[in-house]
Amino acid sequence: MDQLPIELNVITLNCWGRKYSSLYREQRLTAIGRYLATTEPVPHIVALQECFEYQDYLSIRRETRFALPFGKFYHSGAFSCGLVILSRWPIEETNMVPFSLCGRPAGFLRGDLSLGSQGVACARIRYGEGEEDVVEVFNTNMHPSYGDPPQNYSYNVHRLSQAWEIAKLVRNASERGHLAVVLADFNAAPLSLPYRLLTSHAAIRDAWRVLYPDSSLGPTSHELERARGRPTPTAAFNVAENGVTSNSAYNTWAWSRSEQRALRSGKRPMLISPEIPDEDGQRVDYIFFSRGGDPHASPTDLSEILSAHNTFTDDGAGAAQSPPGWVVKDVRVGLMARHPDLGCSLSDHFSVEATLILHTPTPLRHRRRHRSRSRSRSKSRSRSNSRAPSATLADEATMVLKRSGTVSRSQTPRGTPTTNTTNNLSNIKLKEKEKERGRPVTPSFTSTDAGINTLRAAAMEQGTYLQSPTASSYRRGSRDRAAWDLQLSSSELGTPPRLPLAAYDEILNLIDVHASRTYRRRKLGIANFAFWTVILVGSYVGIWFLPGGKGAFGLLAGSSLGFAAGVLTLLLSVLFYAAELNKLNEFEWEIRNAKAVISGMGPDALVHQGSEEEKAWPR
Questions:
Q1: What letters, b where the CB count within 10 A reaches 16 and e where it falls short, cover 382-421?
Q2: Confidence category of residue 154, pLDDT binned at 50, 70, 90
Q3: Is the Cβ–Cβ distance between 13 and 39 less than 8 Å?
Q4: Which of 26-35, 417-426, 465-474 has the highest mean pLDDT?
Q5: What's the CA gap between 270 and 226, in Å, rounded?
Q6: 87, 134 Cβ separation under 8 angstroms
Q7: How many Å separate Cα 289 from the centre of its chain?
Q8: Most exposed of 149, 260, 523, 596 (fewest Cβ within 10 Å)?
Q9: Which helix (H) or strand (E) holds 329?
């Protein structure tokens, strides 16, 4: 820890490592370990889901022992939770927080017994000696929907409850001033209700949608995606722009059974055309991250975040350097290579990989000065282009990029205290402070939106289309410091986007429907036990009246098996369904309270907090 990092490379991956149902599990997970050890850029933190076997975890650790020397296999439940966190730096503290609602015993054939062990794997990873030099990682695998139609989801409330519990954990980490990173197989589409519930109650952002805000909202059959009226994307576009990690046309495990058999027999070609339509591809794996640092230090808008610090008035008064924050520099889909011997994909999911960078906002005066100079230069270039129209777009882009990273020295007379010289003194103090902490100092250069605007104008004039028609109109990541400044503004961060009150009503309605269904199952379970109890007693009495005792064994055997099933349903009703109803009541109260707080902190808004107690008070 001699030098603190300013970049953080994180990876999340669903390994598909179930013991009996995952084909070629051992070979694939060993290859996954080799990928993590050799991929570029070298990862700092890796989160794995569905790595259920401890031996598979040890196999991955052997491959990554040099690149990721620290790791934790999380134990939870009778069948393990399958969550793993690998790290380049020491893991200071871990915690496994099980979900309150996660699966039903009646769904054991779908795997709910193992999914009932799921929760949030938490880890505090220290990358420096400072109090705030901590990354809090949250790794989770939320409950799947099993492909049911949206109106018949059996687990909608379960996923909503899980998203709510993750949001509370992440919010606590952000309030401590730590960088919070959520690496998850969310099993939900972007902008779905669980997705919005998480991002609205925790100050975190989806790394992919920061850089690709126009990416798809699900497969082409998804209701929200159909409403956008977009054409069917190709396989290459889905991976590059939409961040598809599941059911991709590139993934061999998404092929039909006949195609997979043909692949194993060598009859099907290994290569997939990038132009093949990809209707079923969807993004369900996510990297969410917070700003980090003091949560109360964020200015309210972009002008303040740039001008409140390092910007001085004419009388020489000024403020401290703007606090740095974590922004996303790059995000991509990875692990698309096939197994070298088996020819299959290494998992039924692709990985999501992101590079986060600790960025200090650019001083406003530098941006204004550079903007004015860029405008004057663009005017002079437009005049020169009218005289010499042979300039190419490539030359224009090269000149703009060269000019976007310089700050000219002040031309004022020596000895006069100017804004620029005072800002330089502030920057020197900041650099000395960061050197003392061991963090490499980033060069003090600025950028501007003028370069992007000039490129667009030149592209329109010369008929050049820089991006795909359905691509994001403004790629707000890349290496542009102005884009990083925008990520730290309140338009991107600050107060998390609030859910509309109608969304809370929808959640409460789902809870009410699920609670009614659970209550009916509880009553049916008790009635089933009572029915088979009567049948069993009747069977014992009836055998005395059977002529010669014929059929007595069959009657007792059948009634005994029915009674055993009735005892099982009674246990489910008394233990599981009763516990689930209590958890639903708790979740409903928290949602009602959150809705009341958002609608207004007046006494009328929080009246529900005392309604139940008032009913029990004597009159």
A1: eeeeeeeeeeeeeebbeebeebbbebeeeeeeeeeebbbe
A2: low
A3: no
A4: 26-35
A5: 31
A6: no
A7: 8
A8: 149
A9: strand 325-334
Higher pLDDT among residues 413 and 52, named by residue? 52
Under 8 Å CB-to-CB from 346, ≥6 apart: which residues? 28, 31, 32, 35, 335, 337, 338, 339
CA–CA separation, 47 vs 532, rounded Å? 48
Of 168 and 423, the structure prediction assigns the larger pLDDT to 168
Beta strands in 195-312 (DSSP E): 204-206, 285-290
Q: Cα(582)–Cα(592) distance, rounded to whole angstroms?
A: 15
75's CB contacts (< 8 A; 6+ apart) are 81, 96
Of 480, 410, 412, nearest to 448 by C-alpha is 480
What is the Cα–Cα distance from 451 to 464, expressed in whole angstroms? Answer: 16
pTM, to two decimals: 0.77
> Are 218 and 224 within 8 A, CB to CB?
yes
Both tokens of 156, joined, read 């909608």
Measured distance CA(156)–CA(176) in Å, rounded? 31
Pairwise CA distance, residues 471 & 242, whole Å = 9
CA 213 to chain centre: 14
**CB-CB contact of 336 with 239 (8 Å):** yes
Assess contact for 554 and 71: CB atoms under 8 A: no
SS3 601: coil
Tell me which residue of 43, 85, 41, 47 sits closest to 66, measured CA to CA. Answer: 43
Alpha carbons within 13 angstroms on the beta-carbon side of residue 221 total 7
* C-alpha distances out from residue 178 to 289, 290, 367, 494, 575, Å: 11, 8, 29, 15, 39
Q: Six-digit token pair at 505? A: 């009503």
How far apart are the C-alpha atoms of 490 and 301, rounded to whole Å? Answer: 5
Please tell me the distance from the alpha carbon of residue 328 to that of residue 333, in angstroms, as a whole number: 14
Taking CB atoms within 8 Å and a gap of at least 24, the contacts of 600-609 are none
In whole angstroms, give the CA distance from residue 348 to residue 53. 17
pLDDT in the model for residue 609:
60
Residue 333's beta-bridge partner residues? 352
Q: What tokens appear for 556 in the block?
A: 């007792």
* Percentage with pLDDT > 90 across the chain: 45
Measuring CA to CA, how many Å separate 33 from each of 36, 373, 473, 560?
Answer: 5, 51, 36, 52
Average pLDDT score, the chain: 76
Helix or strand or coil: residue 521?
A: helix
Q: From CA 578, how far away is CA 250, in angstroms rounded? A: 45
Q: pLDDT at residue 399 above 80?
A: no
- Supply the pLDDT for residue 326: 92
Q: Residue 573: which of 510, 513, 520, 535 has the closest Cα?
A: 520
Residue 317 pLDDT > 70: no
Q: Is 424 helix (H, G, I), strand (E, B) or coil?
A: helix
Furthest-apart CA pair in the chain: how many Å? 123
pLDDT at position 312 is: 36
